[in-house]
Design goal:
Two copies of one chain form a homodimer.
Chain A lengths: L3 E3 L3 E5 L19 E5 L17 E7 L11 E2 L10 E2 L12 E14 L2 E7 L8 E7 L2 H4 L19 E3 L1 H9 L8 H10 L14 E6 L2 E8 L2 E8 L4
Parallel strand pairs in A: 10-13
Antiparallel strand pairs in A: 2-3, 2-9, 3-8, 4-7, 4-9, 5-6, 7-8, 11-12, 12-13
Chain lengths: 237, 237
């Protein structure tokens, strides 16, 4: 069969400058904001007419870190503890025959200024730099099927972890530019409560981790009663 | 930005051999069955492991009749009577910058026989021959947002039409091969109750129509109190 060619209409700018820490599905962490910058050739205000009336949109995107790389017939979903393999088509893994993803996110607003068209999104699970192929309105009457059976992924991932911040981490947050790093504490709390550690890498004994958000390194430790954010480094900037 | 290339993993076989009559969203007509035949290179049973446990799947596909054709910044959604234009990104029209569609459909069963892997689907809105790029499990906890605001498309399209069959049409259905044309009467009823007529073509005065399903021509008329299926022709076979 023929191949089909698609060109991005825009690009995601998000806090997720690396894969570790990204929520495993959209909307699990509302504070995960991002922008979708529309490329000049698609910056036609008309093409977005009445989109503002939708609270949620589908973002169809390329898993660009996976694109062109080999896929495997089975994957190990993190929620199964990394011990069980399921078929790639029974998963949302980016390593699939066609590295296309779809995420429903909140549409916070559309910024229309001269020479720029930018969508502000919430609840994203998208890596910084993600190429976007399409935007579609979310239609609850068609897209929402509350009683769908979902096998191993029937329930939302449990939020089990209690998150606290060291006084040093609190001080760092207080002095960081809130416009550049919006609602950072809530964002970190939301992300860590998802327990981003990859179970299958056998991190059971490891106690200290780093998660990158923008150019920040969020250092945290696993303790008996939860996770503690120990420090926030701006090593990259 | 670079273009991305995707090759189909399979192809849809459905009753919809032409665009007229296709439900405007998936799941509006449960009787609209289809099969998705997986291409030989992707026929790895492993890749579908545990997919059977999901009642619904996303089909990511190419609007192949629209692919490569020019797109317009605005479209006229049928539900608005064809009189109002909205932005293409506020619509699900196939004429979009990247002719990619996504439909959530029911997964009736997976047929695994030697040399064949075939998904049996229900509630489809997919044209016969549609190239499929991906299959993803439907995850209610991530994909179902019951209170999403959806602007002009907030409500499901109304089923207003009363559908009846002439005795001639009834007789035709009775003698047609039920395996080849499964639950044909329920299918026709479901499709016509969606009122497939394109409002914007000014069909207000036209009273007789034909809708093609497989190789059948379903002839129907608009009458004061609903629609009447007047005849079913097998002219194509």
């Amino acid at each position: 069969m023929t191949a089909y060619h698609f060109e991005p209409i825009g690009r995601i700018h998000s806090c997720f400058t690396e894969k570790f820490g990204i929520p495993r599905q959209p909307n699990l962490v509302p504070e995960a904001w991002a922008t979708l910058d529309i490329l000049p050739v698609f910056q036609k205000a008309e093409a977005f007419r009445e989109l503002d009336d939708f609270s949620h949109v589908w973002i169809v995107f390329v898993f660009h870190r996976c694109y062109g790389r080999p896929w495997k017939a089975t994957v190990r979903p993190p929620r199964l503890g990394g011990n069980r393999r399921v078929g790639v088509f029974a998963s949302r893994s980016g390593f699939r025959p066609n590295a296309i993803g779809q995420s429903v996110v909140t549409l916070r607003r559309i910024e229309r200024e001269k020479g720029r068209l930018r969508l502000h999104l919430g609840g994203v699970d998208l890596l910084d730099g993600t190429p976007v192929l399409d935007i579609k309105p979310y239609l609850p009457y068609a897209d929402c099927i509350p009683d769908a059976r979902a096998g191993y992924a029937s329930d939302a991932p449990a939020h089990r972890r209690r998150i606290t911040f060291s006084s040093g981490a609190e001080r760092r947050i207080a002095i960081l530019d809130a416009a550049r790093y919006p609602h950072l504490k809530a964002l970190i709390t939301g992300l860590l409560s998802q327990d981003p550690r990859p179970a299958y890498k056998g991190t059971g004994d490891q106690a200290a981790f780093g998660m990158r958000l923008w150019d920040l390194n969020i250092k945290f430790e696993i303790q008996a009663n939860g996770m503690v954010v120990t420090d926030i480094e701006t090593a990259f900037g």
